[in-house]
């Protein structure tokens, strides 16, 4: 198969997956105009329109759906064949596609991802962040990174961070006028920055101490759906924030934030790198898994 033909087929798969020429172009590392030209050239040769395009959306035509159903298995076979040949290289090469949340990506970026790229210069890492859990197989990802409790049961999971804990934090300026809470119920007397899930539901802050579990539907003048906006609001004295100890650690160390209710926020299993159990593991993913194990073992010493 000519290189241009393979590019066109991958372009169809990317646009169908992303439902956007712009996002597909970013995924493939090419300009939107070049991607559009590749699709148009293929449609001209086939004599059919593969996509319905409007100014706001992109969707597969009936012919496009049939074409994609036939093409995707072939492309997977080609990718597997190329990966099998690459096993004979001294070092892994290729692209590792990961799906995770923005917060999780920040946790693993420096200790794992950047170190991985330093060790394996022929590898590329493509990280897509989603607030909601996605099907990594359907999305064409090699692996995902999520909290242990969110990993699907049919996946192989490997620790990529040590245990974590949540933290209730506020600025010194906030506590200059408000008494620090001693128990979760005391939060009802505080201005708390409420957390909204992607579903629209408001999160009830959860606590545990010596087997006693408590959840508090906190009150506050500000509700946010971005973890980092919540942290910034707390730094500005807007109220108490519910965050994780990793995100708050630097601010706590230099005194910009103060932690409360630490005895009510025990540690929990941290992030897990996960991937399908019944698929061939690419050399790049195997190397990434080995590095994750190394990083966690080193942090536990």
TrEMBL record:
Top-level taxon of origin: Bacteria
One GO biological process term: DNA-templated transcription
Domain HTH lysR-type per the UniProt entry, residue ranges: 9-61
InterPro entries reported for this sequence: LysR-type_TF_proteobact-type (IPR058163), LysR_HTH_N (IPR000847), LysR_subst-bd (IPR005119), WH-like_DNA-bd_sf (IPR036388), WH_DNA-bd_sf (IPR036390)
UniProt keywords, alphabetically: DNA-binding, Transcription, Transcription regulation
Entry's Gene Ontology molecular function annotations: DNA-binding transcription factor activity; sequence-specific DNA binding
Pfam families: HTH_1 (PF00126), LysR_substrate (PF03466)
Classification via Gene3D superfamilies: 3.40.190.290, Winged helix-like DNA-binding domain superfamily/Winged helix DNA-binding domain
PANTHER family: HTH-TYPE TRANSCRIPTIONAL REGULATOR, HTH-TYPE TRANSCRIPTIONAL REGULATOR PGRR
Assigned protein family: Belongs to the LysR transcriptional regulatory family.
Protein name (record): LysR family transcriptional regulator
Gene: dmlR_11
């Amino acid at each position: 198969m000519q290189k241009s033909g393979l590019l066109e087929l991958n372009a169809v798969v990317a646009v169908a997956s992303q439902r956007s020429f712009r996002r597909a172009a970013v995924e493939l590392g090419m300009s939107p105009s070049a991607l559009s030209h590749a699709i148009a050239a293929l449609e001209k040769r086939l004599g059919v329109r593969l996509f319905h395009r409007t100014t706001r959306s992109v969707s597969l035509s009936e012919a496009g759906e049939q074409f994609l159903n036939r093409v995707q298995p072939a492309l997977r076979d080609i990718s597997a064949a190329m990966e099998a040949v690459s096993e004979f290289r001294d070092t892994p090469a290729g692209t590792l596609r990961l799906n995770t949340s923005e917060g999780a990506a920040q946790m693993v970026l420096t200790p794992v991802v950047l170190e991985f790229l330093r060790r394996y210069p022929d590898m590329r890492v493509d990280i897509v962040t989603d607030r909601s859990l996605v099907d990594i197989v359907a999305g064409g990802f090699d692996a995902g990174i999520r909290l242990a409790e969110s990993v699907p049961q049919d996946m192989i999971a490997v620790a990529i961070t040590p245990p974590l804990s949540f933290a209730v934090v506020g600025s010194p300026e906030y506590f200059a006028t408000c008494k620090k809470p001693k128990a979760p119920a005391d939060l009802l007397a505080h201005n708390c920055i409420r957390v909204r899930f992607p579903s629209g539901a408001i999160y009830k802050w959860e606590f545990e101490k010596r087997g006693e579990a408590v959840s508090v539907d906190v009150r506050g003048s500000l509700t946010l759906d971005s973890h980092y906006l919540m942290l910034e609001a707390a730094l500005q004295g807007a109220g108490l924030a519910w965050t994780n100890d990793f995100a708050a650690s630097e601010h706590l160390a230099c005194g910009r934030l103060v932690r409360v209710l630490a005895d009510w926020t025990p540690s929990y299993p941290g992030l897990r790198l996960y991937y399908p159990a019944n698929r061939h593991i690419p050399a790049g993913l195997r190397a990434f898994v080995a590095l994750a194990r190394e990083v966690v073992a080193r942090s536990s010493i």
